[in-house]
Amino acid sequence: GKENVDSRHNRGRGGETTRFHTVNVAQPVRFSRKCPTGWHHYEGTASCYRVYLNGENYWDAVQTCQRVNGSLATFTADQELRFILAQEWDLEEKTFVRKDQRRFWVGYQYVITNRNHSLEGHWEVAFKGSSEVFLPPDPIFGTAMSEKENVLCAQLQCFHFPTLRHHGLHSWYAENCYEKSSFLCKRSQTCVDIKDNIVDEGYYFTPKGNDPCLSCTCHNGEPEMCVAALCERPQGCQQYRKDPKECCRFTCLDP
């Protein structure tokens, strides 16, 4: 909307003075924030993604993702995987692998069916979800494998160097599930209000943006049925500033 109430004097027919008041002219609204702080949004799947650097074994990583209403990431298409590989994940020095290579637990497991001459098996989705999830190619087997384990867990390796990252180079590892590693969580996009709080389905909220007087309903992670309040300018104040996060709250800047 328009920042201030404008009073403009235009000369009309017959020398009359015509006065116009413009109050909060409606503008198209764009909502760019559909994920909580620290998460990356991908429009193709309407999902949010976050790498957790605190090294955890596979089962603890599963629980951490569940606590934030997500799960270890699985992928539905090559485009989604390319999006993940292209991101800079704000990684710190304390990661658990070489600085130029990053490995994350993701939501697949490798089930071993034959140990005779070579390891044979197949990938499965660790937690049943969408039937559209694709399965990784044959893995590289990790060094921490146990001969007693018949189920290994998936690590996606991506590269830190920008040229390798943007070419989508990556590897899949089948690793001992009790090894500690960073991990990648995925959750559905959500409604995030102007104060960065997550909003539940069906509730009213003010979306992130430039209009603190907008009230919308959260539906499938999107603000819908939005209504805007109009504010009178503060009385007896010539210069003022609007509060960017509170509707109809002003600070008078007059001496």
TrEMBL record:
Pfam families: Lectin_C. Residues 44-186 form the C-type lectin domain. PROSITE patterns: C_TYPE_LECTIN_2 (PS50041). GO terms for cellular component: membrane. PANTHER family: INTEGRAL MEMBRANE PROTEIN DGCR2/IDD, INTEGRAL MEMBRANE PROTEIN DGCR2_IDD. This is IDD protein.
